[in-house]
Amino acid sequence: MKRILPLGICLGLMGMILFFYPLSFATKEKYLREEGLQPTVLPSEITGIAALDFKGLAADFQLLQAIFFIGQKIDRSEMITVEDWQRFIRMIHAVIDLDPYFFDPYYFAGALLAWGPGMYEDAIGILKRALDHRPDDAFILFRIGFVYYYFLNDFENGARYIATAAQKPNAPDFYAPLAARLSYYAGDTNFSLLLLKSMLKDTRSPEIRKYYEKRILALEGMQILENAVRRFQEERQDSPKNLEELVDAGFLDSIPEDPYGGHFYLMPTGRIYTTSKLVEIKEHSQTVLEN
Question: What structural domains and CATH numbers belong to the chain?
């Protein structure tokens, strides 16, 4: 009997917490809506103590609070101010403080801040917090890289994070080619080749191997041409007008073939690219063209 009583008290307290904690949030939200007030961002030190061993549950409700805060303004077509977004960011950080392994706050905040107010650095900062606790999360790494290259036009950082994501367990197969493409845009053909060759070693799928091998062959052709352009510039103190001039001047024996069926060409910036855009060009028969 003496042992049953403390156990009953503990179970009773746990039940009260589970019942009243979400109820208190719901009541507070209703009051704030009626009064037109902003939700209070409580420090995790307070909510963490109040939640006892139910920090995950507390994090769930605080995330819902943050999402509803922005969602209601969107639903009502209200203007969302910079102060509103800053409050949302503080709410998200409070959620992460409670449960740093919780995936959803990173996902929602990273997406909302990037696509909504264009607060790219804040989105990246929140996503990077995840790496302290979810270092092998390929999706988080990919999202960081995506924000860098898509919104900030930072191909170097975009390629670096997506390349790291590509080497994580269960990462989608398209991560590595995308990282290689971005690194080429960033002017680092060597990095593209190293990444694809390292991924090729760990790839067992025959289809994926063929995909990587063709991309490697194309990039090696580009690398040969870039080296020839560099030597031409160093010796002639000038840039070639086209790739044929490299052959005529003896810097190349011939122009490499594009395995995708296109033709390499010299861009005004001095970089090499191809008419195929590194995508397979399918030849159509004369009959199809005539029809």
Answer: 40-117 (no CATH), 203-283 (3.30.1300)
Burial (Cβ within 10 Å: 0-12, 13-18, ≥19) of residue 131? middle
Q: 177 near 196, Cβ under 8 Å?
A: yes
> What gap in Å lies between CA 215 and CA 259, rounded to an integer?
8
Specify whether the CB–CB gap between 129 and 103 falls below 8 A.
no
- Work out the angle at residue 141's Cα, subtended by the Cα atoms of residues 172 and 199, and round it to the nearest 5 degrees: 45
CB contact at 8 A, 213 and 190? no
Residue with tokens 């208190």: 24
CA 195/CA 166 separation, integer angstroms: 9
Task: Return the closest-CA partner of residue 159 out of 170, 149, 174, 147.
Answer: 149
18-22 long-range CB contacts below 8 Å, 24 or more apart? 18/54, 18/57, 21/50, 21/51, 21/54, 21/57, 21/58, 21/61, 22/57, 22/61
Mean pLDDT by 10 residues, the chain (291 residues): 50 49 48 46 47 57 83 85 92 88 91 91 96 94 92 90 90 86 82 85 80 91 94 94 95 95 91 87 44 42
Query: Which residues have C-beta within 8 Å of that of residue 253, sequence separation ≥ 6?
Result: 247
